[in-house]
Write a structure and sequence with these properties.
This protein has one domain. It is α/β, with parallel strands linked by helices. It contains 14 helices and 17 strands. The longest helix is centred in the first third of the chain and has 21 residues. A hairpin with a 3-residue loop joins strand 1 and strand 2. One of its GO terms (biological process) is tRNA processing. It catalyses: adenosine(37) in tRNA(Ala) + H2O + H(+) = inosine(37) in tRNA(Ala) + NH4(+). Its cofactor is 1D-myo-inositol hexakisphosphate. This is tRNA-specific adenosine deaminase 1.
């Protein structure tokens, strides 16, 4: 069995020449190989759909001239579900933005690779036993030489792209956006959003939107893309204020959170020795180095690196990925299409592709394209990366891991809810609480009621 070397100095991805453009090229080539299903379409000669492409790539570097670059998870998409459409059984993908699709696909990839590793197949992970206070549990380590990186065809929504959007926006489009926000901004009930802001829940404050309005006035929080000069704050999706509110934070905010907690999720933390951080992030359109650094980690530095936060539990940290610009163009980017078409509209579909899957998956309204409207989601129509599907796959992997190492499952493991399993990751949850208390107190959280399902719901 491969013995992992925990010496990070052996990682040599930094020595690879022009890696950022290689990551972008591999991502775009992977997208181009996919079938047309779910891709943006052209409507005549004047109108076209656009989307964002995001990929997580695995780099295995032995030396400067001995390395491999591979897309392991791909996502496209621009949509997310409003609060009124959320699912309590975990069977819908609530956030279908490209970065989130790619990240959730990566979690599935991790589980698949762990399964292969304890079956004797070579891969990025090493599986051993871990003994802690006489308790034996599976222990998964990332092998030396492996690293993970992300490509995004444009700066992520939220804080990272505010400057780029402001600079590229015409006076006419800005006027139309502001007119739409003024016309419809007050027609939606914002109570679900307000009640689920972390600070409000912590204070047990429930009021008729007054707290959220106060937070917006204080510059701590903003719905959508309004207020281009208000930088470094949390924002929710979607960008348009005349759209129904969601509980989804912007991709800039989520990437910043991943730079503290990792991209592996709370549940997978229970079998992984260390969090998995993205070593680099490659951006296409709307690139602004200062904005990206601020959005992804600099706005956290003052809070997470003051004396009181030195108690942030190991192995967690504020990770600073390298941020690169690529010259490679994605054909369905908004910037490219606006130079060719007079009308450019967002695509309503999302695409998921994971290394090892026989085919890609098209997601519409949180489930597989073609799912019958008005009928309950089931195993055939739910996405492979919805909470329930990933939870089920995790428990299968966890059980197989324990069996392979002759470690019996606990009696109640398969009866615990998704929420309870997340809470078992105590160090992860402690780190998350530190992040919310010190930096992101206005984070909108998913209510517990949407995570109280079990695998029996599958």
């Amino acid at each position: 069995m491969y013995t992992a070397d925990n010496n990070n100095e052996s990682m040599t991805w930094q020595e690879i020449e022009d890696l950022s453009n290689q990551l972008a090229t591999k991502s775009i080539e992977c997208f181009n190989r996919l079938p047309k299903a779910g891709k943006p379409t052209q409507h005549g000669s004047k109108k076209s759909e656009w989307t964002v492409l995001a990929c997580i790539l695995q780099v295995y570097a032995k030396s400067k001239n001995d390395y491999s670059v591979q897309v392991v998870s791909l996502g496209t998409g621009l949509k997310c579900l409003p609060y009124s459409k959320l699912c309590k059984q975990g069977q819908l993908v609530h956030d279908s933005h490209a970065e989130v699709i790619a990240k959730r696909g990566f979690q599935r990839y991790i589980l698949d690779q762990i399964e292969k590793s304890f079956k004797g197949n070579d891969g990025p992970f090493c599986v051993t036993n871990k003994i802690d206070n006489d308790n034996v549990s599976p222990h998964v380590t990332l092998k030396s030489g492996y690293s993970f990186h992300m490509y995004i065809s444009q700066s992520p929504c939220g804080d990272a792209s505010m400057t780029g959007i402001a600079e590229s926006q015409t006076a006419e489009s800005l006027e139309a956006f502001q007119a739409g926000s003024k016309r419809k901004n007050n027609t939606f009930d914002l109570t679900p959003l307000t009640n689920n802001i972390y600070a409000n829940k912590k204070r047990k404050v429930i009021s008729n939107n007054s707290t959220q309005q106060q937070d917006e006035e204080n510059g701590l929080f903003q719905r959508g893309r309004y207020g281009f000069d208000n930088l470094g704050i949390l924002r929710t999706k979607p960008g348009r204020l005349d759209s129904e509110p969601t509980l989804c934070m912007s991709c800039s905010d989520k990437l910043a959170r991943w730079n503290v907690l990792g991209v592996q999720s709370a549940i997978l933390t229970q079998i992984l020795e260390n969090p998995i951080y993205l070593e680099s992030i490659v951006i296409g359109d709307l690139f602004d180095q200062v904005s990206l650094e601020r959005a992804l980690y600099r706005r956290l530095e003052k809070s997470l690196e003051k004396d009181t936060l030195k108690l942030l539990p190991a192995p967690y940290k504020l990770h600073r990925p390298k941020i690169f610009k690529t010259s490679k163009s994605f054909e369905f980017s908004k910037t490219i299409l606006e130079s060719k078409y007079s009308i450019v509209i967002p695509s309503g579909t999302a695409i998921l592709w994971i290394e090892g899957f026989q085919k890609s998956e098209v997601i519409v309204y949180g489930r597989k394209q073609g799912a019958p409207k008005g009928k309950p989601t089931n195993s055939k129509t739910r996405s492979s990366i919805c909470k329930l599907a990933l939870f089920q796959k995790f428990l299968e992997c966890y059980s197989a891991l324990r069996d392979s190492l002759s470690v019996p499952m606990d009696k109640n493991d398969d009866e615990m809810t998704y929420y309870e399993w997340k809470q078992k990751a105590k160090v992860y949850q402690e780190t998350k609480t530190c992040l919310l208390d010190e930096c992101f107190s206005q984070w909108v959280q998913t209510p517990k009621e949407f995570e109280e399902f079990t695998i029996k719901d599958a």
